[in-house]
Amino acid sequence: MRKLILILFPLLMQGQDARIGNWKDYLSYHSASYISESNNKVFCVASGGLFYVDKQDNTINRISKITGLSDVDVNQVAYSKELDITIVLYKNCNIDLLKTNEIINISDIKRKEITGNKKINNITIKDNIAYLSCSFGLVLVDLQKEEIKDTYYVGDDLSLYEINGCALLEDSIITATSEGLFYANLNSQNLSDYNSWGIITGYENEETYDNIIYGNNTIYGDYSHEIISISYNKSTLVKTKFDRVEINKDDGVSLELTHSKFENILYALYDDDDIIWVADSINGLLKFVDYEYQQSFVPEGPVRDDIYSLEFEENKLYLSHGGHSNFGLNSLINDGVSIKDNYDGWENNDYWDLGNARDILEVAVLNGTEYYASWYHGIPEMKNGWVTTHGFANTNGVLDTVYYSNNRIRVSDLKFDPQGNLWGLSSEVKHPLFVKTKDNEWYSFSMNQDIIDLFFDDLLIDVWGQKWGVIGRGGGLFVYNDNNTISNASDDQFNILSTNIGDGNLPSQQVYSIAEDLDNTIWVGTDKGIAVFYNPSSVFSGYEFDAQQILIQEGDYGQYLLSQERVKCIAIDGANRKWIGTEKSGVFLLSEDGASQVLHFTYENSPLFSNNIIDITINHNNGEVFIGTSKGLLSFRSDATEGKIVQSKTQVFPNPVRETYFGPIAINGLVTNANIKITDSHGTLVFEDYAKGGQAIWNGNNKNNERASSGVYLVFSVDENGAEKMISKILFIK
User: Worst-scoring range by mean pLDDT, 2-6, 227-231, 462-466, 600-604?
Assistant: First the structure.
């Protein structure tokens, strides 16, 4: 079975726009691993996906699932000059054929049930046939017919050998297997029979060859641990080692290429124009002309695809790369936080920028000052490029070290309250809840004497000033009320919420996420779905504060909302709808009350890179929903924004609406849930609706569901008294 994707290849490479309903990727391309050359492009496989450099103008063009690829985790690429086809191989054995006007997907190997390991190790092309060296055999793909042609097996009666690479001679084929080198005649009647293959003696005791290639009437193989990869082109053999590239020409000329940019080389290629391209796992794709370094190519993006949390604060996206194990062990990640400014692109605050702080989990920002929650080194504070680290010594012991070590301060989350006080949680200490007041005073709060072994995760400050915290490893929730007297603990209240009736009534004590919606209800994500606290202000009064699950209709029966899902994150958009990220089922967009499903995005039905969702955050100014998956970051342009209190300047996009555009037309910057009317120049009503938060959407049709005629249309906002005010104009070209 193959899938035809009717997308023009040149269009795949163009910039991704931000129209309602569109997707954008924010992947990392720093770690380059493989290179292939076409007629005028150099393709590079990176950690985040695939990109190419146009050899004529050196422009960088990204290719991902969003722009037309059928999958993620690209492993290798290769090019057929005869057919002008670029072959994309994925780690899950999926295959794409990139042609000028379309992409053909061949998923046979991906779908094939195979006992044991299944992967594609290398690719060799000859006579319009792609030979795929796989863990179970040699698969032949007919590039002209766009289908699997045959599968050859090498082995014996007991087992089939893994094929790491193959070399194609005039009338024979040599394979590098897990048990040595095997050969066969290409004209043999049945190469699918492993008895057709013979072993080349003298090599069976060598270390396993990772790959072999043919050139200059010679078979070249790499079996040394010092050699990372080999390639051959234009009578030139290129050997890649982790810190240098060895170039050996057929005329006997040899040289060694080194450079300060080489930190961990994975592949190198000598192209048709005598240019050397090097894939470095740290510094991306490097270009050398006449053996001299010219430039590096790394598409804009975060420093890595691993995500712990997302925050959109003060018009910036913060992507934290830290982490820890389920047992609280440090991951020792030095990459800190990738930051995307709406206008200035990406930057990174890493280990060295943040005072040698590792494992950054969360970020809180106020008036441009950034506070980072480190699972190892307390709280780095970044202001105007200067960093101050808050720890045990300079907080009067408030930020205490874990009870078994004097050098680890495990801060899991930070949040500002409306008064500008910075609250946070630390783990494995007697006083896990702490605050830095706006006057720079530090206080900590104890809950009981049995919490020293507990881990804490997310922190939420509700509209009443109560602090809600997630207790890790099945501990449920806690709620703390300081009664707005931070310095006086005598009137403080504290509760731990569990599955017991009267003590929270959670569906599970395994809590992963918590959020407060626009109605001030508290939504909790567990490994058994969602629970909602409709009366959070009564949590200490004992009056009907228990969480409730939402009962939905499922066929002829009722069941609790997402009760089979592990809910990893919850985000609230401007229309009070709930964006729910799950571990195995992608993203759900639920109605305001959660009773109905608006959208459901999965890896299978959308550009999502994975169904395992790590975190979600929203730019409420334009409705862009950032979705962090286990395979990287992407976003979806939603139709809801945060509403204004007072009507100010609005934005209509696109405007003008041209004859070639048939998508949604957005009116942004409205007061919350405004009533919108659109009329033609004669005052005839063509559209009326209520905004989703601060944004209304018009499909471009009139009341008769016909495409609106060319002309100028007036947009009116209707207030609660029924008074209309013109707020914008739309030029419509039919």
Answer: 2-6
**pLDDT band at residue 405 under the 50/70/90 scheme:** confident
620 CB-near residues (< 8 Å, 6+ apart): 312, 573, 574, 641, 642, 693, 694
Helix (H, G, I), strand (E, B) or coil at 148: strand
Residue 586 structure tokens: 């992608």
Main-chain dihedrals φ then ψ at residue 393, nearest 5 degrees: -70, -40
pLDDT exceeds cutoff 80 at 342: no
CATH for the stretch 1-14+28-112+242-297: 2.110.10
User: What are residue 41's phi and psi, to 5 degrees?
Assistant: -135, 150
Q: Give the side-chain half-sphere CA count within 13 A for 551.
A: 3
Nearest to 526 by CA among 504, 493, 553, 552: 504
In degrees and rounded to multiples of 5, residue 448 shows phi and psi of -165, -175
Architecture of the domain spanning 363-612: 7 Propeller (2.130)
Q: What is the pLDDT of residue 206?
A: 62
In this prediction, residue 205 has a pLDDT band, given cuts at 50, 70 and 90, of low
Report the C-alpha gap between 143 and 354 in whole angstroms: 51
Given pLDDT bands bounded at 50, 70 and 90, which one contains residue 170? confident
End-to-end CA distance of the chain: 41
Whether the pLDDT of residue 30 is over 90: the answer is yes
Q: Find out whether 607 and 646 touch, Cβ atoms under 8 Å.
A: no
Structure tokens at 518: 């626009």
Contact criterion met (CB below 8 Å) for 454 and 475 = yes
- The most confident of the ranges 182-191, 440-449, 495-504, 549-558 is 495-504
718 phi and psi, to 5 degrees? -105, 125
Burial tier of 459 (Cβ tally within 10 Å: 0-12, 13-18, 19+): buried
CA distance 287 to 321: 29
Burial of 431 (0-12, 13-18, 19+ CB in 10 A): middle
Q: What one-character DSSP code corresponds to residue 248?
A: E
Q: Residue 69 carries which side chain, given as an amino acid letter?
A: L
At residue 383, the 3 state secondary structure works out as strand
- Of 631, 602, 528, 613, the C-alpha closest to 571 is 613
Specify the 3-state DSSP secondary structure of 587: strand
| pLDDT value at residue 14 | 38
Task: Tell me how far apart the alpha carbons of residues 606 and 113 are, in angstroms, rounded to a whole number.
Answer: 25
Which residue, chain included where needed, has tokens 């003008």? 656
Two structure tokens written together for 308: 């712990």
Coil vs helix vs strand at 407: coil
Domain limits, CATH 2.130.10.10, in the chain = 363-612
Distance of alpha carbon 164 from its chain centroid, rounded?
30
Pick the CATH number of 651-732 from 3.40.50.720, 2.60.40.3110, 3.60.20.10, 1.50.10.10: 2.60.40.3110
Residue-wise pLDDT tens digits, 483-541:
999 999 899 999 999 999 999 999 999 999 999 999 999 999 999 999 999 999 999 98
Whether residue 16 is predicted with pLDDT greater than 60 in this model: the reply is no
Global confidence as pTM:
0.91
List every span in the chain annotated with CATH 2.110.10: 1-14+28-112+242-297
* Nearest to 635, CA basis, from 704, 551, 571, 724: 571
Q: What is the 3-state secondary structure (H, E, C) of 47-102?
A: CCEEEEEECCCCCEEEECCCCCCCCCCEEEEEEECCCCEEEEEECCCCEEEECCCC
730 forms beta bridges with 713
Q: Tens digit of pLDDT for each residue in 48-65? A: 889 999 999 999 999 999
Mean pLDDT of the chain: 91
Residues with Cβ < 8 Å from 219, sequence gap 6 or more?
A: 167, 174, 212, 213
Residue that is written with structure tokens 């163009």 in the block: 14
